[in-house]
Specification:
Layout lengths: L13 E11 L23 E3 L5 E5 L6 H18 L4 E2 L23 H17 L1 H4 L4 E6 L2 H11 L5 H26 L4 E3 L11 E4 L2 E3 L16 H4 L8 H13 L3 H6 L2 E2 L2 E2 L17 E4 L8 H8 L3 E7 L11 H16 L7 H17 L6 E4 L2 E4 H23 L3 H14 L5 H12 L3 H17 L5 H24 L4 H9 L6
Antiparallel strand pairs: 1-3, 1-4, 1-5, 2-3, 5-12, 6-8, 7-8, 9-10, 11-12, 13-14
Amino acid sequence: MRGLQGNLALARFNHGIEREALRITPSGSLALTRHPAAFGAPLTHPKITTDFSEAQLELITGVHESVESCVEELGDIHTFIHHKLEEELLWPASMPCGISADDAIPIARYGDSNTARFKEIYREGLGHRYGRVMQTISGIHYNFSIPEAIWDVLAKIDSTSSNRATRDDGYLRLMRNFRKHSWLLIYLFGASPAVCASFLRNKEHNLQRLDPSTCYLPFATSLRMGPLGYQSQEQSLHRIVYDSLPKFIDSMVPALTHAHPRYARIGIRDGDAYNQLTDALLQVEAELYATIRAKRKTQSAERALLALRRRGIEYVEVRCLDADPFEPLGISIETAKFMDVFLIHALLSPNDGESETQSVRNFDNQLNTVHSGRDPELELATADGRRKLVNWAREILEECRLVATLLDEVNDGHDSQSLVEQQVEKVKDASLTPAAKLHRLMVDRKQPFASLGLEMAFEHHETMMQRNLSAERQSSFENLARQSVDAREAIEAADEKPFEAYLADYLSLREDS
C-alpha cells in the first residue's frame, strides 16, 4: 500500500491518551470536595489536571511510540490516583450520574494567576452557554502523530517534497477521511446507549424509559455524541473548512471574533464578574465540538490558532471515543491499537476535499449512528445515495485489513489483523458492541444505569488498588505533585499585567501578540 511495505517507521507512530473521569462518592453522587492536594496543582501538573469541573479529573499520558507503553503509563497514573482517592471512586462511564442540578456542579479552580482566572472564566462561559450538567460528560481523547520517516516516504511516492505544507495537507486529508468515516468508531466503541434520568432534567429528548431512573434508545450507541452530548446547534450552522490549513484558519477566525447574538445576550461581564471570555461563537478554539482536531503545542500565552498558523499541524486529537465502562482505564490496548489502523487508513486513503454537502452528510451519519447504529437495517448517506451501515462498515474494515497487514509485517505478528477481525465480528453481530453489552446487562439484571455504573466503579477501584507502583514511579508522581505546586506559585508571583490586558492580548489573533 503506497510503497510502505516493510518500512520500520510504521512501528514508530506517536500516541498519547487523555482520559476524563468524574470523582464520585461511595453512594454514586458527584464528589463536592476540592481537587485532592495529593495530586498537585491542576494548573501546572502535566499528567493530572481537571477538565470542566473540580470533580472531573483529566489524566494525560506523555507521547509514546508504543501503544503498550502509552497504556502502561495511563495505568500508572490511574494507580497513583486510586491510591490517593481515599473514600472516593472514579465514575466509569462517559454519561454522568448522581447530579442533582447545574448549580451543584463545582467549576474547576486553578489559583490566583491570570492564567488561572482565564481558565475559570472560560468554564463559567461554558456553563452559561450549554449548562454545567452537559460539561460533566467525559470521554477518551486519542492523540496521534506521524513520524518524519513516513512523511518522507509518502513524499517520494507522490513526487512531492516533505515540507510543512505537504504535511499539513496530509494531516487534513486524514481529518477529512476521519470525519467521513468516524460514524464507524461510534458504532464499534460507543458505550453510552442509556443515561440517568437526572441528566435529562429540563431537557427535551426522545428517549424511552428503561426503568424509573434510566432512559435509553433501543439501538443507540453513543448518546454522548448526539444532541444530548457534545453538540451545539449554533456551531453546526457555522461551517469549518478542512481543505487546507489556510482555509481552516480562515473559517475559524469569524467563529472566534464575531459576536454571536445568543451569547451576546448573556453578556461578557456583570460589573466586575465575568460571565464568559467573549461573546463570539467560540470563546477559544477548544470550544469547537469536533470529532477530530488539528493540534500544535502552544507556547506561553499563545492562541492555538496562531500556533497552527505559525508552525503547522503537529498531531491530531480524536474526540469521539466514549470511556469504556468495562475497562478500569477507560480504554484497552486493543482499542488503542485499532485506532492506529483506522487513522493510518484515513491518512493513506485519497480525499481531495470536503464539500459543504459532504460535511452535512458526515453530521447526519454521525447522528443516525448515535441513535440507531445497532439497527441492522440502518442506512447512511453517501455521495451515491443511501447505503446500509453494515455493508459500508465491512468495506472500510476490509481496507483497514490491508493497513493491518503492513503493521503486522514490521511487528512480526498478527495482532493488527486480529483486531480488525474483531471489529468485523461486531459489524456482523451488534450484540458484541460495548453499547449492546451495557444495554443487555441493565435489562438482564433489571439494574438501573446508576446502580450498574456504581458497581463497575467499585470493581475498577478494587482492581487498581491491587496494583502497586514501583518505589521509583511512586516517587516520580510525588515529585511531580510538589513541582506542580511550585510552578503554580511561580506563575502567580510573576504576574504583573492586569487581567484585562492579559485577556486582550491572549484573544488577539495578531501575529505580534
